[in-house]
Amino acid sequence: MNQYLYAKEKYAKLGIDTDAAIAKLKNVPVSIHCWQGDDVNGFDSEGPLTGGIQTTGNYPGRATTPEQLMADMEKMFSLVPGAKKVNVHACYAIFEDGEYADRDKLEPKHFKKWVEFAKKHNAGLDFNPTFFSHPMANGLTLSSPDEKVRKFWVEHGRACVRISEYFAKETGVPCVMNIWTGDGLKDVPADRKAPRERYAKSIDEILEGYNKELVKPCVESKVFGIGVESYTVGSAEFALTYAATRNILPLMDNGHYHPTEVVSDKISSLLCFFPEIALHVTRPIRWDSDHVVLFDDETKEIAKEIVRNDALERVYIALDYFDASINRISAWTVGARNMQKALLYALLEPSADFKALQESGNYTKLMVMQEEYKTLPFGEVWEEYCRSCGVVAGAEWFDEIVEYEANVLSKR
Ligand code: RNT
Ligand code: ZN
Description:
412 residues, alpha/beta, two-stranded antiparallel sheet, 12 strands, binds L-rhamnitol, binds zinc ion, 42% helix
């Protein structure tokens, strides 16, 4: 018997239409970060990665040019089902013919090749100003007491708004522009308020007069970073309140909270008040380690919270992890496939029934059914989804990575 038809019947008995779930998921874009391909190096400087984030590992074959990074991303795209956006950081500006522009002087033309790449893949583009890995990013950027430094970064943010507008116009898809800084202090602050006031003022200045149809600005919070352990300017409360009072989106990265906090529990709270929110899906191991996203409980729970609250169009899902210790394209592919898996898994949940069991206080049956649901033949539906997206269904996708490593990566 066709395994998919068998699975389809099993789900149908619970009132779940697997074909409908597959069709729905195909239209849900997941924004895929360019920075897994080169350990967040970018193309605009030779300096080290700063801002309190870190990649570890030195697996061979890292992309070092735009051509290599795009070729690698293309390989990964061919192995990941579903709709995609390309998530680009400002430090991935592409300068041609020896020209160079500092971060405050970046222009749309420096991202023309990314637009071409996105169009080729029928994908929208998202954007991120890069407030790190730069000589002017020494501790504090948008919250700096040094007006020269603060203004430099405000100008960078404004340049990024213009680039985001250009992305949206070119692709026809609104551009999610995420503001994250690693601003903070290593040791006990004497004044926690002044930097936060400056941070708010700076973001206000960046967002003066942007086109709301084209750009969706977000502010990403964080709890701490390496070297800034005692104080983070853009804390959870700061980002949430800023976003709420300015009508922009809060962005939650699930690596940016205390270890027993879960973003899956926060999504519904935000959905009560914000029309739209944004996520960075990652896997924190003891800290914001940005391990590859797995098909684990929290990733599934995040997906379920989006789906069961009927919020697929209100939540902008992006990936944010970087592992340099294994084949980078494989890392990229595993994480992106897992996000898709989690969304499909969530779409197959008999959510209305489960909600009814909760509301009627039938917690015994709710537990029984939630546990039974875990072992339904999900793998068959996943494989059908991959096939219908023209993507290799099983582990054979890895053969292509092995081949690519032998033919391309090992020659770098
Ligand atoms: C850092 C934040 C931020 C970055 C990217 C590269 O902790 O998660 O989103 O990972 O901007
Ligand atoms: Zn993030």
